[in-house]
């Protein structure tokens, strides 16, 4: 079967480590014919790997889309605040889209994107990849089959991990809500999407509390300096030391995100000169480091979500309480248990978590997109994470941030 041809707009982490490798593994599914990326090294490396000629390599998405429609699909993995314009232009040109989450950092633009996908009759799938993982799909099936009765409450916790928090949300691209978006949208629209999907009903009201409690200058230890390499007296005892995270941590490999060629010398230079070597207490970050969100759904069921940057491991844990049973699970362990009240039985499900990212969701997501494009019918366009399916989680995120900024006042969606 003929592969789907695609443009890649943004050859950063997702482009290079998710979409690119998928095309390498499954060349009969996906072939890249054009790349747009402002970083020359990344652009040329991606082009070389996928055999893209120089005349189809561009520094900006505007140049790439100025060619008109030259492929079946466009994959938009630019920075958060650069999603809306290329997505709208690509839809107008007739491209099917993979759009990285969040759809946009502006509520009205998310609504416009859903309307545009319907207007132009194009497939727009948002990268809420967790829905495609065996772990979450398994939980969804248990609920849909009535295994625990009617869901009354969901408790979902995202343990961000202290190193990931400092890398991405204190020093990194998503540190400042005016430059990217609030963390509840940038990071946790995944989780709000899962809750929305598992509940499968309208969310009526949202309230939220959270703050930037720790990563502030008034919390800096005595003896600390502006950069970890400036002779900081407490660097060896600091859990957020850039030297520890980028030069001494092997898994995950954070160094690959701060240098195109992360040799020890290049990594050290990036720490000394770039944003990732700054003291976590002296950055320009303003996103919260912990937050809770409470949701009320139309049936009367409710959900609570907890986000924390102060955990040892990166993990999502979940507890789902139904009228006839309960589910408890840990995504990173690939395991959930079902407790059935009437029989007292406990059934355990274990999934393979050794393959691709997000519990296997990344590859399944791209494969699903390819299949949806191949059988596309504009009168039945959907997809598990279509713009329509994904919109509610974005609206919950915007409402949560509005509530948090108003001191926890409930917001009606």
UniProtKB/TrEMBL annotation:
Gfo/Idh/MocA-like oxidoreductase C-terminal domain mapped to chain residues: 140-335
Matches recorded under InterPro entries: Gfo/Idh/MocA-like_OxRdtase_C (IPR004104), Gfo/Idh/MocA-like_OxRdtase_N (IPR000683), Gfo/Idh/MocA_Oxidoreductases (IPR051450), NAD(P)-bd_dom_sf (IPR036291)
Pfam family, one: GFO_IDH_MocA_C
Domain Gfo/Idh/MocA-like oxidoreductase N-terminal: 7-128
Gene3D superfamilies hit by this protein: Dihydrodipicolinate Reductase, domain 2, NAD(P)-binding Rossmann-like Domain
Tree of life domain: Bacteria
Molecular function terms from GO: nucleotide binding
Family affiliation: Belongs to the Gfo/Idh/MocA family.
Protein name as annotated: Oxidoreductase
Organism: Cohnella abietis
């Amino acid at each position: 079967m003929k592969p789907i041809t695609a443009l890649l707009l943004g050859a950063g982490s997702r482009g290079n480590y998710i979409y690119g490798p998928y095309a390498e593994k499954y060349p009969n599914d996906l072939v890249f014919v054009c790349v747009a990326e402002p970083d020359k090294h990344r652009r040329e490396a991606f082009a070389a790997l996928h055999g893209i000629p120089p005349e189809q390599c561009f520094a900006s998405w505007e140049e790439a889309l100025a060619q008109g429609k030259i492929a079946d699909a466009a994959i938009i993995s630019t920075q958060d605040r650069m999603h809306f314009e290329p997505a709208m232009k690509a839809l107008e040109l007739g491209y099917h889209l993979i759009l990285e989450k969040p759809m946009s950092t502006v509520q009205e633009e998310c609504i416009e994107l859903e309307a545009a996908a319907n207007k132009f009759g194009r497939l727009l799938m948002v990268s809420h990849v967790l829905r495609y993982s065996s772990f979450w799909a398994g939980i969804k099936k248990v609920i849909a089959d009535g295994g625990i009765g009617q869901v009354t409450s969901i408790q979902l916790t995202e343990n961000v991990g202290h190193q990931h928090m400092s890398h991405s949300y204190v020093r990194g691209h998503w540190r400042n809500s005016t430059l990217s978006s609030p963390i509840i949208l940038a990071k946790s629209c995944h989780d709000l999407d899962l809750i929305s999907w598992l509940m499968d009903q309208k969310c009526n009201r949202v309230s939220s509390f959270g703050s930037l409690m720790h990563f502030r200058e008034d919390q800096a230890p005595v003896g600390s300096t502006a950069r970890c390499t400036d002779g900081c007296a407490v660097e060896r005892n600091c859990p957020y030391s850039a030297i520890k995270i980028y030069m001494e941590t092997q898994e995950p490999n954070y160094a690959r995100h701060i240098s195109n060629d992360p040799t020890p010398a290049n990594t050290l230079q990036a720490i000394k000169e770039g944003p990732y070597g700054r003291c976590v207490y002296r950055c320009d970050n303003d996103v919260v480091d912990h937050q809770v969100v409470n949701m009320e759904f139309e049936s009367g069921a409710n959900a609570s979500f907890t986000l924390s940057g102060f955990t040892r491991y990166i993990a999502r844990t979940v507890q789902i309480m139904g009228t006839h049973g309960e589910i408890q699970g840990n995504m990173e362990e690939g395991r959930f248990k079902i407790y059935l009240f009437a029989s007292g039985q406990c059934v355990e499900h274990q999934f393979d978590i050794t393959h691709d990212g997000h519990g296997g969701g990344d590859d399944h997501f791209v494969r699903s997109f390819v299949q949806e494009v191949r059988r596309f019918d504009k009168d039945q366009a959907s997809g598990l994470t279509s713009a329509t399916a994904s919109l509610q989680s974005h609206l919950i995120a915007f409402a949560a941030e509005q509530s948090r900024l108003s001191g926890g006042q409930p917001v009606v969606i």
